[in-house]
Amino acid sequence: MTDTRDALIDAARDAASRAYAPYSGFHVGAALLLKNGDVVTGANVENASYGLTLCAETTAIAKIANEGWIGELAEIAIVGGRPEGDALIGSDAVNPCGRCRQILNEAAERSKTDILVHCASGDGSAVTTYRLSELLPAAFGPKDLGMIPD
Predict the structure, then answer these.
(1) Does residue 109 register a pLDDT over 80?
(2) Beta strands at 73-84 and 39-43: parallel, antiparallel or unpaired
(3) Per the confidence metrics, is the pTM higher than 0.90?
(4) What is the dihedral of CA 122, 100, 45, 74, to 10 degrees?
(5) What does the alpha-carbon distance between residue 24 and residue 43 come to, in Å, rounded to a whole number?
(6) Which of 17, 50, 71, 90 gives the lowest tally of CB atoms within 10 Å of its CB?
(7) To which H or E segment does residue 73 belong?
(8) Long-range Cβ pairs for the range 54-59 (8 Å, 24+)
(9) What is the mean pLDDT of the chain?
(10) pLDDT for 71-104, tens place per residue?
(11) What CA–CA distance (Å, rounded) separates 126 from 90?
């Protein structure tokens, strides 16, 4: 698991380098591991109308949904920090916000997997791994609507 986790964190860190964050200056990258081993990334995209900002997790989930892979999510890594040259700085692991936890839950339920969520600091000094069910207990999702296909 550590090799997979570290590879996902590296991919998320790379994605964070492409974030569009002119207002907060805080770059976040996400890397999704699909059941077939493919990795799909996303980065945060800020907007002058703050409510329209997209989180890294949301952009990555939108990519897999757009490709028809919404039911293929296996794991995710999230990295965040302030850019300094080619590096991200920050020693606190970044956790998904509440909205992203709900977005991840939708894909996880479609994948029929209680996905691993690897939360890492920008500088790589802190990594915490959770099951999504730990981050969003008693989640509401497709299962509550009877919408999970066999």
Answers:
(1) yes
(2) unpaired
(3) yes
(4) 70
(5) 14
(6) 50
(7) strand 73-84
(8) 55/28, 55/30, 55/96, 55/97, 55/99, 55/100, 56/12, 56/15, 56/16, 56/19, 56/28, 56/29, 56/30, 56/80, 57/30, 57/96, 57/100, 57/103, 57/104, 58/99, 58/100, 58/103, 59/30
(9) 95
(10) 999 999 999 999 999 899 999 999 999 999 999 9
(11) 9
pLDDT of residue 73: 97
Output the 3-class SS for 97-150.
CHHHHHHHHHHHHHHCCCCEEEEEECCCCCEEEEEHHHHCCCCCCHHHHCCCCC
Identity of residue 58: T
In this prediction, residue 58 carries a pLDDT of 97
For residue 57, indicate whether it is catalytic: yes
Taking CA atoms, 5 is separated from 1, 58, 109, 122, 129, in Å, by 6, 20, 21, 15, 9
User: Residue 38 corresponds to which tokens in the numbers above?
Assistant: 């493919």
Catalytic residue among 57, 72, 75, 109: 57
